[in-house]
Amino acid sequence: MHVLVPVDGSDPSDVALEYALEQFGDEDVLALTVIDPVDGATTWGPGSADDWLDSAKTRADAVLADAAERAAEAGVDVETDRSVGRPARTIVEYADEHDVDHIVVGSHGREGISRVLLGSVAETVVRRSSVPVTVARRED
């Protein structure tokens, strides 16, 4: 089984990674970080987009290195990869293109108007994925 875990360094993605390592540690686990170009859309000026992308790649690589380290501490080898695009769409497309069998995604656990206003990568992945998705969130 090939399991995809999107990670971004947030608490919800940490929870998803922990869950995936516990539940699927004997499987092929891949941690994916998605660089969202919308995050850099407010950067203007000559060369600034390239600077932003270089900085975003450096941040993504740090998130992936942390995920790999956490997995190693749990005795699990993980693959890592990064991609550029809108997070939910990129996660679903990546899963389709790389023969992923299961996705484990973190959620903030927002409800009501907060969820509607802020949207939810996890919700979109659940709705659009062609493979099973587990939504992991920390118990309060």
Task: Describe what this molecule looks like in 3D.
The chain is of the alpha/beta class and 140 residues long. Helix content is 47%, strand content 21%. The protein contains 5 helices and 5 strands, in the order βαβαβαβααβ. It has a 5-stranded parallel beta sheet with strand order 3-2-1-4-5, with helices on both faces. The radius of gyration is 15 Å and the shape is globular. 31% of the residues are buried.
SSE layout:
Layout: E1 2-6, H1 11-24, E2 28-35, H2 48-73, E3 78-84, H3 87-97, E4 102-106, H4 112-118, H5 121-128, E5 133-136
Parallel strand pairs: 1-2, 1-4, 2-3, 4-5
Helix pairs in contact: 3-5
Short description:
The protein is of the alpha/beta class and 140 residues long. The chain contains five helices and five strands, in the order E-H-E-H-E-H-E-H-H-E. The protein has one domain: HUPs (Rossmann fold).
Name of the CATH homologous superfamily: HUPs
Instruction: Kindly name the structural category.
Output: alpha/beta
CATH topology: Rossmann fold
- Note the run of SSEs as H and E: EHEHEHEHHE
Q: Please tell me the CATH architecture by its name.
A: 3-Layer(aba) Sandwich
Question: CATH top level?
Answer: Alpha Beta
- The end-to-end span amounts to 30 Å
**What is the residue-averaged pLDDT?**
88
Given as residue ranges, the uncertain stretches (5+ residues, pLDDT < 50) are none
Q: Major beta sheet, specifics? A: 5 strands, parallel
In spatial order, strands of the major sheet run: 3-2-1-4-5
**Shape category:** globular
Note the total helix count.
5
Radius of gyration: 15 Å
- State the share of residues found in helices, binned by percent: 40-55%
Number of domains: 1
Strand content: 15-25%
The total beta strand count reads 5
